[in-house]
Amino acid sequence: MNAKKTTQQAPECKEQLIAIKDTMILLSGKWKIQIIGWLLLYGKVRFMDMLRGIEGIAAKMLSKELQELEQNQILARTVMPTKPVTVEYELTEHGKTLSGVIEAVSAWGITHRKFLFKKER
Amino acid sequence: MNAKKTTQQAPECKEQLIAIKDTMILLSGKWKIQIIGWLLLYGKVRFMDMLRGIEGIAAKMLSKELQELEQNQILARTVMPTKPVTVEYELTEHGKTLSGVIEAVSAWGITHRKFLFKKER
DNA sequence: CAACTTAGTTTCATAAAGGAAACCAGTTTC
DNA sequence: GAAACTGGTTTCCTTTATGAAACTAAGTTG
Predict the structure, then answer these.
(1) Is the CB of residue B97 less than 8 Å from the CB of residue A108?
(2) What tens digit of pLDDT does each residue of A78-116 get?
(3) What nucleotide is nearest A87 when CA is compared to C1'?
(4) Chain B partners of A40 at a C-beta cutoff of 8 Å?
(5) Which of A48, A57, A93, B64 is deepest in the core (most CB within 10 A)?
(6) What CATH number is given to the structural domain containing A62?
(7) Is B66 contained in some domain?
(8) What gap in Å lies between CA B95 and CA B73, rounded to an integer?
């Protein structure tokens, strides 16, 4: 995983770095990863549940982020024929393949918290 | 990993979701994850190497992102006593614990590319 | 001394992200 | 019918993020 550079030439662009860029284009922003984490934890979720549950998100943002994730086939939107119409969102099979990313991000957050705690004492 | 909601109450806030939020605060932006990916691949890297190698980044951005990552103890900055001063950046031990995240992000980018490819034919 | 290198910083400007609040449409309950 | 609920959309506004280009500072080379 190491390749020292002594010249001033830029190293060739590794596929992994391109893949990182591609992924981050889809997941950038303050809310997308949180939304996906929610769907991984809770399965099918209604719009208002997310709006109330994801602290601080505004309806406009939630709506926009859900649309973008749907366009990228990360999640699916289903309108239910209930009394007041409800809409359910859930991860697609492809969306579920993000679980590795979400879990890694989540695990590191906990690692980082411990790191900060160790330091301050 | 599933907890259906039928009530209108928001589900309690899971630790994992907080951890996701914490992590994304540190890694948000267009460049940070790419920079960390670079340092994981190449070890010690000089400022100008990154500036030339990370496609599209401007000096101001690189400088700012490196400062933020240093403040969060993800990487370390070392001024080398060379002819024209050079500065080396490398991940700290703590920064290296991000490898799981970076690898997951990178791997998913490749998964996603395959998914798109399968669909279009 | 002029020109070039490294490693930035500063300035000026634009683009993208995010948010609060009001509004809309359909349905239901009081 | 008034009020409430679901799931949004629209408007207006503020904050961040990002960028290109010029500029600084110290040392090096021709």
Answers:
(1) yes
(2) 999 887 889 999 999 999 999 999 999 999 999 999 999
(3) D7
(4) 1
(5) A57
(6) 1.10.10.10
(7) yes
(8) 7
